[in-house]
Every structure is written in structure tokens, then in C-alpha cells.
Amino acid sequence: MTKEESKISYYEAVGRRKESTARVRLYVVNEESVAIGGTVREKGTMIVNDRPIDTYFPGEVYKKMYLEPFRTTNTVNRFVVSIKTEGGGLAGQLGAVIHGISRALVKVDKEKFRPILKKRGFMKRDPRAKQRRKAGFAGKARARKQSPKR
User: Fold this and answer.
1) pLDDT tens digit sequence for 101-136
2) What is the pTM of this model?
3) Where are the domains positioned within the chain?
4) Complete edge-to-edge strand list for the sheet that includes strand 46-48
5) N or C: which end of the chain has fewer CB within 10 A?
């Protein structure tokens, strides 16, 4: 780690949804760009698993969803965001990313951001998960074996 890298301060949080986990880092940037991990990142850049967020979560619907915590707190393009996500599918990972971003924003300014994000429902972890498979049934959690016709 270089001397410039050690000076960079960030807020880190973990978000979860279904089987997905996202580790989010919000880097506080004083200038227009900052060097993170050997690469220069512009202010407002979001990286997910070493890819730009708009290629990892393509489309306008996803973009509106992952930017919503920033819009709610008026912090759009204030941070450089680095995210590592794993497990589950794309929708579960997106939910984990939103949860992680919200938790990291609360660490930035608890008194100001927490009530706003809590009211919008970003602070609550969505507990829904796939139901476990029951033994003796036809493969899935709620499937039943087909009865013979005659």
C-alpha cells in the first residue's frame, strides 16, 4: 500500500439480500479523482466486482434503483464507490448493494441520513429467502408428488 493510498478514508458496510452479500466502500474524495488499487477513479464512479456498475447492472430500471439511496440523501457524485458482491442472482445482488450503500451512508452522517433512509425502507434487510426442500416430496419446497389417475 502506497502512502497516497493509506491517506484515503472510506466508509465500509455490508448489505445482504437472499443468498447475496455486498461489501460496499464509500471513498471520501477531496479532489476530482483518486487512485484506488492502482487505478484512477473519478468522483461519482461506481465499481462492482472490478467492472463499471452500468455494465454489471445494465438498464435504466437498475440504475434508478441503485442510485436511489444517493438521491434520497442528496449525495449523488460525492463519493467513489467500490463494491464486491457474491452469491445469489442479479436481483438479490442488487438488493444487497442497495442495503450496503444505505448502511455506509448512515456511517457518514448518522443523525442526518438514518431517519431519511429508514423512512424510505433502505435500512431494513429483506429477510425473504428460498424455502428449504422437504424430504419425501417432489424436488422443490412446495411441490407434491403426482397421484396416479386410476
Assistant:
1) 999 999 999 999 999 999 999 999 988 888 899 888
2) 0.85
3) 3-120
4) 10-17, 20-28, 79-86, 46-48, 51-52
5) C
